[in-house]
Amino acid sequence: MSGAPVDLSFRHISSLEDAWSEDPGGALRPLKRNPEKKSASRGLRLNNNDIADLRDLQTAVGHFLSEPSQLAWLDLSFNRLPHIDHVLCELRALRVLYLHGNNIFILSEVDRLGELPHLQTLTLHGNMIATHRNYRNRVVSTLPQLKTMDFSAVTPQDRVTATMWRRSSDRRRGSEEAPRRAAPEPPESTGPQAHV
After folding, report:
1. What is the distance between the alpha carbons of residues 162 and 25, in angstroms, rounded to a whole number?
2. Contact assessment for residue 39 and residue 71, using Cβ atoms and an 8 Å cutoff
3. Alpha-carbon distance 13 to 21, whole Å?
4. Where are the residues of the annotated region Disordered (predicted)?
5. Beta strands in the chain (DSSP E)
6. Fewer CB atoms inside 10 Å of the end CB: C or N, the chain?
7. What is the pTM of this model?
8. Cβ-contact 32, 61 below 8 angstroms
9. Which helix (H) or strand (E) holds 57?
10. Helix axis angle, 135-142 relative to 156-182, nearest 10°?
């Protein structure tokens, strides 16, 4: 990362549009800024706010960072996010993503993060999805490049277990869908008795 992260944590920000008026100063290390007042940082802290959607995330990143496409570290923990938004998948250089302590409740939305080829560290604990029985297996099998999940190393055994779980889950899903595919379509009726 180049310089300290842009720190907009603990600001009572409820929408990312509100963030634009904030001065990210006050960090332990002063931000180095270019003449446009943008930071060369590759990190952004938006944790411990009241953010419930990410619709303006790209604009906010571009507002504060001189190279928004190079954002590698994003902390959105302890907000009110109900979903893993597709906009996160546009942050192609992202390596670290903190989403713990939000309101994310649909486990399958983790699949979206598979579009982030460099993602190595992810936190999701403290969300409803973390209570799902196969939570860790689903995340590790979906994101095989992860090295750390919920501040815990992803071990070789985690990978083996997740792979076995995925295969079993795929087989189970395939056997449930097979009878539906094999069931013949009802014949189309023609003639007057079809309307009886």
Report:
1. 42
2. no
3. 10
4. 22-44, 162-196
5. 6-7, 43-45, 73-75, 96-98, 121-123, 148-149, 152-153
6. C
7. 0.85
8. no
9. helix 57-64
10. 90
- Rg, C-alpha atoms of the chain: 22
8 A C-beta contact, residue 119 and residue 143: yes
Q: Which of 81, 17, 19 lies closest to 45 in space, CA to CA?
A: 19
Cα-based torsion angle of the residue sequence 114, 52, 125, 48 in order, rounded to the nearest 10 degrees: 120
156-175 per-position pLDDT tens digit? 999 999 999 999 988 887 76
Give the pLDDT of residue 174: 73
What average pLDDT does this structure show over 98-117? 98
State whether the Cα torsion 59-63-67-71 is positive or negative: negative
Domains of the chain: residue spans and CATH? 6-178 (3.80.10.10)
Is there a contact between 129 and 135 (Cβ–Cβ < 8 Å)? yes
In angstroms, how far apart are the furthest CA atoms of the chain? 82
